[in-house]
Amino acid sequence: MNYDSWFQCRFGCEGRYPLTEIIYRCPECDGILEIKHDIGILRKRSGSEWVSLFDERYMRTSYPYGSGVWGKKELVYPNVEDENVVSIYEGGTNLYWAERFGESIGLNDLWIKQSGNSHTGSFKDLGMTVLVSAVKQIRSDGGDIQAVICASTGDTSASLAAYCAAAGIPSVVLLPKDKISAAQLIQPISNGALTLAIDTDFDGCMELVEQLTMDKRFYLANSLNPLRIEGQKTISFEIVQQFDWEVPDWIIVPGGNLGNITAIGLGFIMMRDLGIIDKLPRLVCAQAAAANPLYRSYLNGFETFEPVVAEKTLASAIQIGNPVSAPKAVDVLKQLDGVVEQATENELAYAVAKADRTGLFSCPQTGVALAALLKLTESGTILPDDRVILISTATGLKFVDFKVGYHTGQLENIDSNMANTPVELNKDINEVLRSIQSVQS
Length: 441
Fold this sequence. Notes:
With 441 residues, this protein is α/β, with parallel strands linked by helices. The chain is built from 17 helices and 13 strands.
């Protein structure tokens, strides 16, 4: 079938623009763009037929359809030629039954979607494979893109650098100086990106990137570009696929620039519209209290939305006060009966430590979602038998300084009441035994 997708203004302006056009805002009203699909053509295949096709492809070796993203190519970016797809076998991350952690907070059916178990260690790979593939398609068609550029608090830059390196396309990343972990900083450096540490915060980096990408030789890789959203929405497809196409009750997502919560909501809406599923889950967006514009908007029923100046937070990847995807996020939260919750620094640190004691190794952004889960469980919003999926957005290995600081009591103004430190002993079997026995008692 002749599947198609295109850019279109989310505010209803009539213009349609091919996905190979270098455009980020509506020429008529300057509104943000979204990607539209020809749903009429997609509906010619029944929901059960889509399920059979996706199950046939899932995690197989036929390139690029074994990818968790490109196995749903028709619903993501049908127009890109297979030879221009840049894939590192993204997606396919495990859905972990957090049985012990769930029991400890009164939940019987809690699952963690380990999106950080990916090539660069975060969910950003799901969107970046689509964006860099689009760039490769544009270049193969004769477009003069000299580099792909992004502002980042760490994970986006790592993913962009890796995918551009795999494609042989130059990349440039702007990072807030001294505000990301060493593990995050070394990733774009290792993959050969021009890495610029700017003396500002993420929002300041984003302002510079928007100015730079007015020159069409520099292609924008931030989530203002809706191509990223298309890849990230496959998290929704994959979750229900891993549950034999059953829909959970709740999805909990950390929120910074709000692209991921938008993408996940759009993924569920699309599956419903195609007859793949027959109901929608409820969404929770979890924000750090230090960077919480969406939470503040939620408190007034989304009547207004005001950016904030983001304060320092341990959840540095979501330290964003002016999220570009806020209007889209509000839309999907309304459609999926969404909730927005926030977490203080102590709450997120405690939630990470508590969850880690049950076998997880969570990043501080996931800690914000875990803290929101604790609050919503305690309030009775989430019920004991609800099926809950919490999105872990990055591997905790990117945030070892946060872990070490917690367990050594060196995080400022944080109560490390679950700290666990090595016990130093002499080489004496009796001392070792006494130490072991003290734990057992």
